[in-house]
Amino acid sequence: MLLPIITYPNKILKSVSTQVENFDENLHILLENMYETMIASNGIGLAAIQVAVPQRILILCIPDEEGNQFIENRLEIINPVIHHPRGITTYQEGCLSVPGFYEEIERFESLELHYHNRYGEPSVLEAHELLAIAIQHEMDHLEGKLFIEKLTYNRRKKFEKEYKKALKEKK
What is the mean predicted confidence (pLDDT) over 33-40? Predict the structure, then answer.
């Protein structure tokens, strides 16, 4: 089932997500619905808060070289914690909650991620490049942060102006 994606400036996106305690059928249904919603929206990542569920849950599916996303490459990440971030890289990010806006954002180039899978089993993942960037982007959502908050003051002001103009044009 497709879920509605909450968009900026909705205050729900500012919520700090809580730890998942129950790794039950409701969680599994949410994970399936989040995956369907992300793929239908042409996203590579989705945090539960983006569908109004303030829990520490992410879905990621990094495309291959041809741009294909395969379900077997889906990552379901619950209660994630970053360890050993290394290096710095810049990548042009977008967000399903800030549609139509892209900006160069600085992130760690690689990291080690500790998390739980859908059954509550602990897992560790070494992430590099786009996967590491996507993890950091989605984890920001869990803290109530959007990638636009990483912009410089002047760039953020320009974004606000452009975004308001784009919203008016849609009406």
Answer: 98
Reading phi first (left if > 0) and then psi (alpha if -120 to 50, else beta), residue 42 is in left
Does 138 qualify as catalytic in the annotation?
yes
The pLDDT tens digits for 84-104 are: 999 999 999 999 999 989 999
Work out the pLDDT band at 4, boundaries 50, 70, 90.
Answer: very high
- 171, pLDDT greater than 80: no
Specify the amino acid at residue 71.
I
Question: Which residue from 93, 94, 103, 98 is spatially nearest to 8, judged by alpha carbons?
Answer: 98
The full 3-state SS of 83-97, as one line of letters, equals EEEEEEEEEEEEECC
Using CA atoms of 15, 20, 26, 27 in order, give the dihedral in degrees to the nearest 10: 90
Alpha carbon dihedral 16, 151, 35, 43, in 10-degree steps, equals 170
CA distances 116 to 84, 99, 168, Å, are 18, 29, 42
Do residues 78 and 117 make contact, with C-beta atoms less than 8 angstroms apart?
yes
Q: How far is CA 2 from the centre of its chain?
A: 17
Per annotation, catalytic residue among 25, 129, 138, 149 = 138
